Amino acid sequence: MSQSGIEWTDWTLNPIKGKCPVACPYCYARKMYDRFRWNPEVRFVPSVFNDLPKKPVRVFVGSTMELVSTG
Q: Where do the DSSP E strands lie in the chain?
């Protein structure tokens, strides 16, 4: 989980990591994976839920994933 610069949320949380195999032309996450050389393997990482803060905050879940991908 990381603090967000997005104005309508406080944090982002991505339990599904990796590059979506569909490669949509509008996908900014794919560009981030290439730029930062993140692990492209698609996987579920449940440990990210351990980082949730104790106080109420706004969390954007899935900022770098396509939950309904056909791939």
A: 2-3, 11-13, 16-17, 43-44, 59-61
Higher pLDDT: 22 or 49? It is: 49
Q: How far apart are CA 46 and CA 34, in angstroms?
A: 23
pLDDT, one tens digit per residue, over 5-44 is 788 889 889 998 888 888 788 888 888 888 999 999 989 9
Q: How far apart are CA 20 and CA 36, in angstroms?
A: 16
CA distances in angstroms from 63 to 4, 12, 39, listed in the order given: 10, 6, 16
Contact 69, 22 (CB under 8 A): yes
